[in-house]
Amino acid sequence: MDWEVVIGLEVHAQLNTATKIFCGCPTTFGAEPNSHTCPVCLAMPGALPVLNEAAVDKAIAFGLAIGAELNRHSVFARKNYFYPDLPKGYQISQYELPVVGKGRLTVQMADGSEKVIGVTRAHLEEDAGKSLHEAFVGQTGIDLNRAGTPLLEIVSEPDMRSSAEAVAYLKKLHALVRYLEICDGNMQEGSFRCDANVSLRRPGAPFGTRAEIKNLNSFRFLEKAIEYEILRQKDILESGGSIVQETRLYDANRDETRSMRNKEEANDYRYFPDPDLLPLVLAEARIEKVRQSLPELPDAKRERFMQAYQLSAYDAGVLTAGRDLADYYERVADGVEGKLAANWVMGDLLGALNKAGVEIQDCPVSAEKLRLLVQRIEDKTISGKIAKEIFEEIFHQGGEIDAIIDSRGLRQITDVAAIAAMVDEIIAANPQQVAGFRAGKDKLLGFFVGQVMKASQGKANPDQVNALLLERLQKPE
Amino acid sequence: MAFDEDAVRRTAYLARLALPMDEVPAVANQLEKIMALVEELCAISTEGVLPMAHPLDLEQPLRPDQVSNHDERQRLMASAPATEHGLFLVPKVIE
Does B58 reside within a domain? Predict the structure, then answer.
């Protein structure tokens, strides 16, 4: 009998505010340890937290983007636990009344199907500091620069049924926070982190006991950790055992998850409303102001790309997966044929970026330059093949397209007389093949086209070569 | 609701209180009495009453997202028992 996997994700998105959530300390990454601290985030007695309005607005933007209920009245609560990088002995979070309620996200799967994943809630909370265990013998160093950085914790419903669905959801969420410009999405630096709840059940049966997997800081690790966890739980269940509800850590080096062996009482957080903070009330005017400032969102952009540029759902999906790529594509496609521009961006450009390990925002070829290259194909100055060579050159060495075309004599030959001369020469030089073609070996046409293109160093217009060859070869002598 | 000695020890552990063992029975007795008071409150009908998150009938003021604190690390860390390279030092917390 088959097992069905049930997956829910908890994502922590660090909100890209200038200051921390409850104090005016900067949030910039990579500063000297503890240089971004103050009595509030160090938990000095008597210090009072005051909520950052930008964190609230970014939470509202997220809620609007997933069509969620925004709670007009939400409450901050203390989540109590002890760890040295949490100076207050509690984390300020939201518990019973989060700022963002139920919403949903539609994800596109590789086979073109769509699936709606429910978002249970999203709430505001503060991040903890960082512990450095390696640097000191017998001691741990604590850097509290990150303590108090605003986080939006986004909790999904247990709606995903495969690792592929979980990855698709996480990618969609990642693209969304980047579109909204509420989080930089940097997974290596930890500004977009994911925990996965994974359980197995027989189809139709109630949910099984879940394990929570932590430390998933890339899409690939999420996929691999879930795949590993499915096998582990299946082994246990099929040999008659039962799953222990626990937190497990994914170890990328060994490609396995292992138990974190929490102390049994460690999970009693004793939440209660934080008396230092008053209830957060969202005024309609504030919500409306955020709504007005929302950018075009991925789903709407995808629809528009399909209409405006005559792209397939797949192409439009790839091009709108990230806001930077979508913007780049639109600049390329401005004034040229949409599908041709899409082929260049998705093919040669993304291929070259991938190979070089470069992100689109650092692309060495500007969108305007790529557009000019496409225009030179459209106006028949160069062939597609020559364009690929020029692209390789400007991607790696830079340079101006028209200057390269002129200085290297790459201009496509469209002069009928010149092409006809080459065609005649090739026909004269290959009497055997000519006889073969005339005897019915149609496939030999390819041979002739190849010879003429070679003779022209790739510059002859292929359509004209074809037409002239057919005309000459079919004419009886 | 029973607040026995086990519950006292567990609560003390969660709050990281070093409660002397000989005080546990007395504390259990006191907490039991507080729980009895809570039991009494539970008898009141609260239907239709929203949970109160704060005794003041006010809403949270918001702060503009502008940096207002500057590096005062030296002064702020002066009272820490141990520091090195700008880090607070604590007993090792990982095995």
Answer: no
